[in-house]
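Issue: ligand-bound run for glycine - logging full I/O for the record.

Environment: standard queue, default settings, no custom constraints.

Inputs:
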Amino acid sequence: MGMKVLVVGGGGREHTIVWKLKHSPLVSELHCAPGNGGIAALAECHAVDAVDVDGMVALATRLAVDLVMVAPDDPLAAGMVDALEAAGIRAFGPRKNAAIIEASKSFSKSLMKKYGIPTAAYEVFEDADKAVAWLQDQSMPIVVKADGLALGKGVLICATLAEAEAAVRSILTEGKFGKAGSRVVIEECLTGPEVTVLAFTDGKTMLPMASSQDHKRAYDNDEGLNTGGMGTFSPSRIYTPEMEAWCMEHIYRPTMDALNREDRTFRGVIYFGLMITPEGPKVIEYNARFGDPETQVLLPRLENDLMEIFLAILDNRLDTIRLRWKPESAVCVVMASGGYPEDYRKGHPISGLAEAAQVETATVFHAGTRRDGDALVTAGGRVLGVTALGADMEQARQRAYEAVSRISFQDAHWRTDIGIKK
Ligand code: AMP
Ligand code: GLY
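Outputs:
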């Protein structure tokens, strides 16, 4: 008898997790809440909001699932894993006291400082006047961040003192990010390429996954506003085995050990957002979960059974797992609604998905889509993540873009340079 699994969330990352679990002989039944138009083809979707802790516990109880996989940041920060466990349901993901490494930047900065984990120098402020007074002596550019979860929008890179003052006032005085902005972290501005490394951990073993890189800006050549991510590729060309060994010793293991020492043992996936500075890799941010759209290039390369890894983590025997990766490169191109990350329209019919899936190795992961009768329509800013593999990055790129060219919806926007940057 296989297991019944409920995945919490409804974006491209969750579609990819459901797609990967669908390949597992250990899984016999898949549910997702709330899911989306693509997930509905692989799992039974339930209309429970991803942040509704009580609703999710009730759903998991009613379905009598064997495991709940909590994928997004908000429910993890709200303690959904703790609530499920309290109800006697197995749950994959960090508890609230460990998910805080993403939910509070001031917490993660002080953790890194206390345990000597390389990161940008910083100060924390709750009072706007004090922050502005301190800023007078700082060199620009400087980075101002809202403390809490702000949909990836709470980070402001300020070129001038005036911009930095305005950023502080917008967060602390005008409450631009609500409660997430009751504190600010002001940081030294680092330079260098960014690499994402996700790692599985059960609190004893740290198992880094293959590297990847995200393209966060809306337009080609890294122009336009920051988004949730417009595309990814894996592996990174700059993250060498030597760098991985160095990060293991100075960043990954120390992070796991620090959380254990603080009685905040982390079980799940830790996201290390690294900047490769001239002085070496430094942590830009921790997330307490799989990245989106990093997952869309990692899980298609992962040869292991994902369910086997989840169970090993829950049983504290991750040391028995060895990750195996396809040697192929992967590229994921996000197709977004015109206007994203600002205002955009929803409800446009999407066509060409079957034709796109004909491209060798291509898989279309749905982010913001919804079924409307027989049609599939846009339902979010990021609509689709089109992934393809290739013998090298160029072949993966060609295939992904060939698949993209077969898909259409009104005002679709995508970057044409995913996978090119170093
Ligand atoms: P975060 O939401 O913390 O990932 O920040 C979003 C983006 O802002 C990062 O991916 C970086 O590109 C940039 N960023 C954040 N912190 C710094 C920093 N200290 N120096 C330079 N860039 C930064
Ligand atoms: N791709 C960035 C994130 O998942 O936070």
